[in-house]
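B., you asked whether I could sanity-check this one before it goes into the benchmark set. Here's the sequence:
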Amino acid sequence: MPNSLNPFELIARRWQPSARFVERAALATVVMAVVIVVTGGAVRLTESGLGCDTWPRCTSGSLTPTADMGIHGAIEFGNRMLTYVLCAFVGLLIIAARARQPVRRPLTRLGWVQFWLIMSNAIIGGIIVLTGLNPYIVSSHFLLSTALLTVAMTVWQRSREGDGAPRDLVARPVRQLTWLLVGATLTLILLGTVVTGSGPHAGDAREVHRIPLDWQEITQLHVDFVYIVLGLTVALWFVLRAVQAPAALRRTVLDLLAVLLLQGVIGYVQYFTGLPEVIVGIHMFGSCLVWIAVLRVFFAQRERPSLAAAPESGPTGDHESLQPESPAAPEPEPAASSR
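And here's what the prediction gave me:
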């Protein structure tokens, strides 16, 4: 009895996506990961966090928002629906990576990691509503979105390289400095979630629990880490220049520096203008760009070649077929003319 084919194998028999298609599908998941962060911020900044006051339904008697819930219910429910859109993009990536020949199993595995992160974050989003916008759970919601963006960036990077063993393009001390930069940036993002959890934008017009810290003091600590990340970025650029690292690698550091400076300007503007919602939303978008730029610096410092093709055996499959053929004997020269 022939073995039954799974759905992925059936799709692979009828559709062979190009490497370019898989790469674009991976990039689409990166874009959607950023979109879900920005729209989540819009829910908070428009005080729509409890626009749907329960979960998984929007109200106790309706799956969707009702007319009397107004714009807040529509915004909250719209953000929930984006989860399904994100799942669709991730599903397309998984199918494309599985159908492509040869199969890119690292891509499919990472695609499934994205899927389960989305599901976990959806559950956490429901817990946030059921707990009345608990600020600690809200912060974990954002951090899990950052993890999703990290995996999406990893998939996009892997879609543009081979599956061979990674090779460092810089010396170990440079990699260690880069790890320090990544860690400082992650701390910077974490402090940003604490600022949000203790700041004036609670996510709903009603009184909700906030992190019991002085948000202005946490903001100052957040700013201090901005300077630390800036200093590490400048130091890394000078180190790469001193060791004559590839120009493409140095450009990623300059890109990061530009994004950090722009994000710093936005941060100061929002602070001295009283944290207007639009500027805060732009700042959240900027935090995604900062993390993407840091990951690009990290990924640029190593490469993965394509796996070497295995040598093909001869028609007989024996060892002799792998040996070079002996040179053919020279043909005899024609006899000299009798004339």
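One thing to flag: The radius of gyration is 27 Å. Otherwise nothing jumped out at me.
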